[in-house]
Amino acid sequence: MQNTTNTPIIEVNNLTKYYGDFPAVENLSFTVNKGEILGFLGPNAAGKTTTMRILTGFMPPTSGTVKIAGFDVIDQSLEVRRRIGYLPETVPLYTEMSILDYLDFMGQLRGMDKKWRTRRISEVIDICRLGEYRSSLIGKLSKGFRQRVGIAQAVLHEPEVLIMDEPTIGIDPIQVVETRNLIKSFGGEHTIILSTHILPEVSMICERVIIIHEGQVVAIDRPDNLSERLKGTERIEADIRGPFDQVMTSLRDIPGVQEVTRTDRGDVGIYNIETSSGADLREQISNLVHDMGWGLLRLQPIQMSLEEIFLHLTVTESDKT
Amino acid sequence: MKNTLIIAWKETRTYFVSPMAYIVIAIYAALAAYYFVTSISGVLPEATVRGYIIPTAFIFTLLSPIMTMRLLAEEQKLGTLELLMTSPVRDYEIVMGKFLASMASLISLLIPTVYLVVLLMWFATPDIGPILSGYLGIILFGMATLSVGLFASSLSGNQIVAAVVAMGILLLLSIIDLASTYVGGIFTELVLEISITAHLESFARGVIDTHDFIFYIIFTTFMLFLTVKSLESRRWR
């Protein structure tokens, strides 16, 4: 965002949280600049929710400090809470209230006066496109709408910092796109931290990503740099008709191929080829098959699933250290 | 204070749009009227409301937990407690707001029974003092039962558990004075002192005993304090 300045609005220092003996977050340190959108990426139970709960002042850390807009989350909790909009993972809604009543209640709790409330409620209802349901009971709304009501309450009091825990979980694909655009539109104006376990989501919305695994930071980087690093994990699947053993050895001989596995289907072998460092070997493979006079039935690059990426990233990163 | 009132007002509105409010009011109105009628239908009837003041204690030990069970348990279940606790609101303001709302629902139970007082005044010339002290007594007693109910509601996200726990505590505290004959020394005193029903009798007789008055105030304050601590402990889990 062009509005991004270099004043850190969130400063997290050596944040550690233990649940009993279990470390949920260990020695987490990062800063977020004003207007920046930061993504928290990690598998389930990585410590994302714990970190967010500490940032919002819901629970205190075991050790370490968090400052938001210069206020300490423990010692000046109320000041921090005034400046934060929070969307927890389970959208916190009073099902027996209407959208208008709910937003009005939340506005009052945040100390907004009547005039400010009236203006902002109609604004957020427009932004989150809740207009036709403004008087409906929240309990009757679909999941996607509830999510939008949750976002509406989070931005209602024009908070400096917006913290969203998995904002796109459990809603349908079209609404996911809408929600992402909505969140993106808040950037610059608000400083945003959001958590997700969806990799593309991070590259779409965030300017910076923290990958967290088992309570530890695995990587902090811009999404494009990160996907560059992750490209090394590409795979190609090829269906080749030809003598199995010979195909296997020839494929392994192609420079850049790391590992080949095979499943047989009749006289066709389905080869799973792992390539290194983002090299696209499709041409070499098709040339090889052509030169040898075999039959190439299918050649397809396979994107690594999220689990594999995490596995890869966490394994390689911990190998390095 | 403002936050307390905001929460209290929201809870009160929610309570009175739910059918629960009217079911509870109807049950209490019917029971109070029944006790009233039986108490004034004897051979030598007295023009008092004592007939339903004492049974009210028992009724409240059952109804208060039902009126308070959702107040904090539901917030935990819906996840809205996380929202309240990350809003610029202090924990005790949340508890006080909820408690005030439960007081409003308790007062709503008593309003229909004013009709019985009117009847009494229409057909007889009752002594107003005991009527007022009786009502003061059941309001104080109600406060105590509601504070227990609110505390139980803070313990878990399950409303039924909250209601059952509160009823258990209240029933125990109501009958504990029976044990006074079986224990000795300081325990006799103690057992009589913590019995919530024993403190109501003076009010029903028309006596406002500061000792009993202060008991209910301290008891309620203590339970509300425990509720705040119980909420605070959610932050540490």
What does this structure look like?
The complex is a heterodimer of chains A (321) and B (237). Chain A has 321 residues and is an alpha/beta fold. Chain A folds into two domains: 8-230, 3-Layer(aba) Sandwich (Rossmann fold), CATH 3.40.50; 235-302, Alpha-Beta Plaits, CATH 3.30.70.100. Chain A is built from eleven helices and 14 strands. In chain A, strands 6-7-8-3-9-10 form a six-stranded mixed β-sheet, sandwiched between helices. The longest helix of chain A has 15 residues, at 306-320. Residues 316-321 of chain A have low confidence and may be disordered. With 237 residues, chain B is an all-alpha fold. Chain B has one domain (2-236). Helices cover 79% and strands 0% of the residues of chain B. Chain B is built from eleven helices and no strands. Chain B has helices at 2-17, 19-39, 50-78, 80-85, 91-110, 114-123, 128-155, 159-175, 186-194, 201-205, 210-236. In chain B, helix 3 (50-78) runs parallel beside helix 7 (128-155). Chain B is globular and about 60 Å long. The model of chain B has no long low-confidence stretch (mean pLDDT 90). The A-B interface holds A 19, 53, 56-60, 78, 81-82, 84, 86, 88, 90-97, 101, 105-106, 108-111, 153 and B 2-3, 6-7, 10, 13-14, 17-18, 78-90, 235-237.
Q: Strands of the biggest beta sheet of chain A: in what spatial order? A: 6-7-8-3-9-10
Strand content of chain B: under 5%
* Mean pLDDT over the residues of chain A: 83
- Give the strand content of chain A: 25-35%
Spans of chain B of 5+ residues with little confidence (pLDDT < 50)? none
Most extensive chain-chain interface: A-B, 29 and 25 residues
Helix content of chain B: over 70%
Whole-number total of structural domains of chain A:
2
Instruction: Sketch the topology of chain B as an H/E string, one letter per element.
Output: HHHHHHHHHHH
